[in-house]
Amino acid sequence: FSLTVNNGEFLSIVGPSGCGKTTLLKLIGGLVEPTKGEVTFMNGDQKLGAVFQSSTLLPWRTVAENIALPLQANGEKGYERKIDKILDLVGLKGFGSYFPSELSGGMQQRVNLARALVNKPQVLLMDEPFGSLDDVTRNKLNLELLKIWQKLKITVVFVTHSLSEATFLSDRVVVVSDRPAKIRRVIDIKTPRPRTLQMKETTKVFDGIDGLKTLFTELFSSPHNEKVIRVLGINQFLKEDRFVNFFTYYHKIRNENNIKLQLILHKDLKKTIEERYVPIGQLEKGDSIKYVDFE
């Protein structure tokens, strides 16, 4: 497993649950030691900040006091002005005296982000920071994160299960396989910046060797040497023409490799697939479909 992250880059990592994405962030952050190999920063030691999915705020401390924790740990004094500036940066001006219990989930994650940024890190590690938020709040924080990243010009390594989020935010997306984790593909995102939410909904953000495969699916090998096509992003798969394109790709893979396939599709696709495509023979004999609940 070898990966280079460029200075000032926004890089996202996607892959199945349990494949080691969080462990990779811990390795970068020095929270665990590698059993083999090494993590190297080309410009020497770097200041790091980290934001996690669940809130790590101390409930008995105010917003300002939570943000001040790294500064206090370093023995810094007279940091009140710095706290005010970082609160303004993350859109929480005037909330310094509030306690975490008085904030929404989105606001709590802003505090977590502010605490990670208060020491002016060169590298920001983010482990599914918006995964527990509703779509509206998540989209809003995606936009604000991009503005902060562009203003501070720092390097961001971002772990997510959402392909739409990864491609909207990133310069590159690293697709990691199931354990033992390997890099299956590194995809350059060519959507121009600054990005808008309209781009997130309408742009084909995945350009790759096989555009159809890269946009809709990832091909995995099962333990029984069978092949599995898993639809990665339901949001990119709801229009009628995309069902047609997907089955074109499915037949292409099946015929070229002369193998049986299992399709793992989102449960919300079941009605459309079974009413329109299975009855007209789109599914090859011996193949199967499994419907699951994933983003």
List the helices and strands and how they pair.
Blueprint (H helix, E strand, L loop, with lengths): L9 E5 L6 H9 L18 E4 L11 H5 L1 H5 L6 H10 L15 H13 L5 E5 L7 H18 L2 E5 L3 H7 L2 E5 L6 E6 L8 H6 L8 H6 E5 L5 E5 L8 H18 L3 E6 L3 H8 L10 E5 L3
Parallel strand pairs: 1-4, 1-5, 2-3, 3-4, 8-9, 9-10
Antiparallel strand pairs: 5-6, 7-8
List keywords for this structure.
single chain, 295 residues, alpha/beta, six-stranded mixed beta sheet, 11 helices, 10 strands
Q: Can you characterise this structure?
A:
The structure is a single chain. This protein is of the alpha/beta class and 295 residues long. The protein is 36% helix and 17% strand. It has eleven helices and ten strands. It has a six-stranded mixed beta sheet with strand order 2-3-4-1-5-6, with helices on both faces. Strands 7-8-9-10 form a four-stranded mixed beta sheet. A hairpin with a 5-residue loop joins β7 and β8 (227-231). The longest helix has 18 residues, at 135-152. The chain is elongated and about 70 Å long. The two termini are 26 Å apart. Residues 202-225 have low confidence and may be disordered.
* Number of distinct beta strands: 10
Largest sheet: 6 strands, mixed
Q: Which term fits the overall shape? A: elongated
Count of DSSP-assigned helices: 11
Cα-atom radius of gyration = 21 Å
Helical residue percent band: 25-40%
The H/E string reads EHEHHHHEHEHEEHHEEHEHE
Question: What order do the strands of the largest sheet run in, or round the barrel if closed?
Answer: 2-3-4-1-5-6
* Proportion of beta-strand residues: 15-25%
Uncertain ranges: 202-225
Give the N-terminus to C-terminus distance in angstroms: 26 Å
User: What class do helices, strands and sheet pairing give?
Assistant: alpha/beta
Return the average pLDDT rounded to an integer: 79
